[in-house]
Amino acid sequence: MQNIKGKVVAITGASSGMGKTIAVELAEKGAKVVLGARRTERLQQLVEHIKSKGGEASFTTIDVKNKADLVQLVTKAVEQYGKLDVMINNAGISQLNRIDDLDIEGWEEMIDINLKGVLYGMAAAIPVFQQQQAGHIVNIISTAGIKITPMMGVYAGTKNAIRTIGEAFRQESDGKIRITGISPGYVNTDFASNIRNEEMKAAIQQGMEQMAIDPIAIANAVIYAVSQPDDVEIGEIVIRPSKQN
Length: 245
Hints:
Blueprint: E1 8-12, H1 17-28, E2 32-37, H2 40-52, E3 56-61, H3 67-81, E4 86-89, H4 104-132, E5 135-140, H5 153-172, E6 177-184, H6 198-211, H7 216-226, E7 236-239
Parallel strand pairs: 1-2, 1-4, 2-3, 4-5, 5-6, 6-7
């Protein structure tokens, strides 16, 4: 874990859930975290919490649907700390419905955040990484793209798209920029809060109550991936409750 101390890490979706936990755990290990999310007050509270524990943190209010906001997040990291070592694309959303429900608004929201938002994060970080001749992209994906189930078609599609893009980038890279995909299953977060389909919202919440694991498990996976020596790349990690189907 000594390889984490002093690393500068930008995190999207950092105001709650997995992003928040990842930020806290990385800061505890000595990383300098730059946090991005839409909820300014929560980001302020999180930065204060990290600093109260002796960590280094800053934030900028962003919406991953806006590519300029991702550039702003990366620029803040570089201006404040002189570099960026890791870009964690964590922000995501789900709207779960049958395809023939035609929730086109929900589809567009997931494509904008889960797919384009991640691409914008990669696009903001890659020029900095190329200039440094080093960097690490970590994309938080989902087990939804591994086991395809009804009601999750478009959501799973956005997640599988990121898996495919990450693998293509891995092959295109000369090894100086590493990329890791982490696919969580049921994790104890407020993931279900934005789901408009009440039946699916209830089903996801029930799954959370029955088996969800602590988000620290995902943070530990991130720490494992980013603490490896520069010549080691952790490609894919699937992490879920042991009793999840």
